[in-house]
Amino acid sequence: MQKQRRPYRSHKVPACDRCRRFKRRCTGGTPEQPCVLCSLQEVPCIISSSPKLSSSPRHRAKHDQRRAQTTRIAPSTSVDRIPSPAPADGEVIQEHIGRDYHGSPGQDQSKVELSMFASPVISEDIQILERYMSSKSSSLSTGERSGSSDTPMVYLRAPRRREGLSMAANPGKRQKEIVMQVLQPYTDELVRLYFEEIHPAFPLLDEQLFMELYKAGDKLSPVLVCYFFSVSLILWHHSPVLRQFPKPDIYFIWNLAVEALQQDFLAPALSTMYSVLLDMGGRPIYSMLVNTINNGRAVTLAQTLGLNRDPTNWRRPKSEKSLRIRLWWAVVIHDRWSSFAHGISPTITKSRYDVPIPMLEDIITDSNQSDTHIKAAKSFIHLCTLTEILGEVLPLVYDLNLNPKETWKQIRRLETDLDEWEDRLPSYLRRDNNENPRVSGSSSLQLSYLAVRLLLNRISLHVSNIPNTASTRSNAKSEHKKATTLSTDIDRLQTTRYHLSQLRKSAQEIVNYVCSLTKAQLQEFWLPYTAHHLILTVIILLRCTIESTDKTIISTCKTSLQHLWTKLQTAAEDGWDLATMCISQCKESVSKVLDNDVRGTNIVGGELQQLHLQRGGAGDGRLLPIQGEGRSPAMQSVGGGELLPDILPFSNPDISFDNQWDLGSLYGLGWMGMDGFGAYEAGNQGGF
């Protein structure tokens, strides 16, 4: 039985809030050692008032006076809440911003509310009402305007916690204690590694404020601490100091962080944004499903906090505005590259935000930063601009009603945008750069660019295979109409052949680049979505190999696949987890292709001649399937015996390559609703 720490009916030792509220006998407790009743009910044991402050009117008056002075110095310690009127630049004390952005809301029991961004539809109405209610207490806050809109920014205060739901008073505290017990001798070195290798390429945190709170003790959010060290563990062997010791179980540390984040989402705050973004950018990847779900939660929370609005003209400190801009673009990057990798349509659309791309001064806040950090910051800026282009490519992937004519216009424009993006790169971010040391994140940036090229060529292949609706709907039987339709199909085949060659060329460019990477480059910062780009490249080379009858094409694709596979195996041995993930997904399929004499078993030669014969024998002008194959000759031998167009997945490489193997089709493409080529024949314009 728990020892009674509070004398019966003691005024010197007050009862906890819950016992006092329900008029129950309290044995005395603290958040660390709750009283008997709070312990049984598994609820926080909180004592909101101190007897020393309330025992004397003099003490009470002095305490109130000190609180009033603090309020005049710093109007609000909650970064989520935009006061009205908003303070001018520099009015808010720097350490308050740091505590709010990186600190734990659970440490301050007064932060029971979260400021939610209100609908722009009612913003003007609320502003008018507030003029007449300014002398009264209001549950809303206005005063800021977005840089590209005259609509005032309105925030509504909402409770952070769900009434009646039992939850941790300080989410992640228990998990943080375990993490610190495991890593305590190495934490300083892990902090140094993070800010030297990860932070310059992906500047999510404010280094100066983070370090101040880290050195101050238990000032950082426990959940943020868990994720910070989980992400940093990938760098363990990069340190001469740490590699002498056994690496802690990274899987165990990550599970603690994930558990803490689930608690934190029950009462989210701005510090939750940092944790979930670190979760999505962390390596190695343990659960793509959880990452996808967290992406949706991160986007929703960011919009709730108003991060999607331009803070440039807000009367807030420069450091705070820069943090908001960087936070939003981190959300955009994860949303769009996650969409590319996992096959889920992006949540963010370009017309729903007006936050500008970060500038160098938004990232480099210290004038003493090294040249290497400045170059890495510029790499992040170019990643943001590439993400903007990707955001325009993705609608072509997920649009269920493609207009081929308009789509071709967009494809040509996007190809030009990619060319211009590459031309604008400084020399130290280009693929042919031989500078030493290289800029952290530049290799990931280049592979991401090549992956977008690959995606755009895959879309071009799909669009080129969409038949002319005017000709397919015609039922005319005249020889002229049949000849016109035949000519159209022949042109389509030739166009498809060209885009197949471009797709194959894009895949081989990725192979050449990956094979050129050095061990030092593999130890740079890499986005976790790189693993999916590698898997996509392997899939395309596999299909090009097994679906071709051209010996030159087979030899070229097989050689490229062999070179890539050898490089990935070497990289995996060197500890590159992204290569390990690709190997685990594709190992069985690649080994079967490389170990066998691959011939195109589903290919029929002389496609144009057979197409003409089929046309001549069919009065309705339809493409007839060849007996035994279930496909039209045009579809069997597109491009002179090359890859079947719409059976190749453009993305979502989360494919389970089971033991089943069919040389004609890769097992595991059922996510597209295509179990074989017959499905393609039945639904030519379906999802790709």
Question: Can you describe what's shown?
Answer:
It comes from Aspergillus transmontanensis. This is Fungal-specific transcription factor domain-containing protein. Residues 15-47 form the Zn(2)-C6 fungal-type domain. Keywords: DNA-binding, Metal-binding, Nucleus, Transcription, Transcription regulation. InterPro entries: Carb_Metab_Trans_Reg, XnlR_reg_dom, Zn2-C6_fun-type_DNA-bd_sf, Zn2Cys6_DnaBD. This protein is an all-alpha fold and 688 residues long. It folds into four domains: 1-73, no CATH class; 75-159, no CATH class; 173-388, no CATH class; 399-406 and 442-467 and 478-682, no CATH class. Helix content is 53%, strand content 3%. The protein contains 28 helices and three strands. The protein has helices at 17-21, 36-41, 51-54, 57-73, 94-102, 123-133, 173-183, 187-198, 207-215, 222-232, 250-264, 270-281, 288-304, 318-342, 360-363, 371-398, 404-423, 442-464, 469-472, 479-516, 519-522, 530-546, 551-573, 577-594, 607-617, 633-636, 638-641, 677-682; strands at residues 113-117, 140-145, 152-159. It has a three-stranded antiparallel beta sheet with strand order 1-3-2, with helices on one face. Helix 12 crosses helix 14 (318-342). The termini are far apart. Residues 50-99, 105-110, 469-477 and 600-688 have low confidence and may be disordered.
